[in-house]
Amino acid sequence: MKIKRINALLGALAVIAGTSMTACAGSKAEQENIADAAIDAVEETTETAGATGDPTANNDLTAANDVNSGTWKKLPSGLEYQVIEEGKGAKPKADDVVSVVYTGYLPDGTIFDATANHGGEEYTSFPLNKVIPGWTEGVQLMPVGSTYRFRIPGKLAYGERGIPGVIPPNSTLIFDVKLVKIGQ
């Protein structure tokens, strides 16, 4: 939470500084350039923090990736997970259709995919047995209403092929996932 507050403060300071400089600038073109720079600073601050507007987005991936933090549970397959919030609903089976809100990160914290990228829907739905094996295994652990963070090794994700231009081969992927509902 402190990261979010710091980033909000930095964004506010950038807007205040930009507004102050705009008022002191001479020409209209100079004012517009300063205002644009302030807006860019706010956007850069929120992008650096991983802010996506997604309620499950993680803003501290360095801590999240620390296997030694003691908060990761590891399954025999190599899939690791953290329980962010435990729900009270039913757990899906592999052949169920699930609805989720998610954000996917590369190990360096780069967001490569998120629910928000899929037409602005609140959540996205899919058959659980039609996604990468790490998702099929991990989401079955989640009661409806839960938010989990998964660290999925390359062999349970996109393996040697990766996704050209998006996910390098054999990449470990990190997902923040909220299970909204089971069924269509």
Compact summary:
The protein is α+β, with helices and mostly antiparallel strands and 184 residues long.
The count of β-strands is 7
> How much strand content do the residues show?
15-25%
Reported by name, the CATH topology of the largest domain is Chitinase A, domain 3
The tally of structural domains comes to 2
CATH class of the largest domain: Alpha Beta
Largest sheet: 7 strands, antiparallel
What's the overall average pLDDT, rounded? 76
Distinct helical segment count: 4
Compute the separation of the termini in Å.
34 Å
Which of globular, elongated, flat, extended, rod-shaped describes the shape? globular
Evaluate the radius of gyration. Answer: 20 Å
Estimated structural class: alpha+beta
Helix content: 25-40%
What CATH architecture of the largest domain would you give? Answer: Roll
pLDDT under 50 segments (min length 5)?
A: 1-25, 34-59
Q: SSE order, as H and E? A: HHHEEEEEHEE
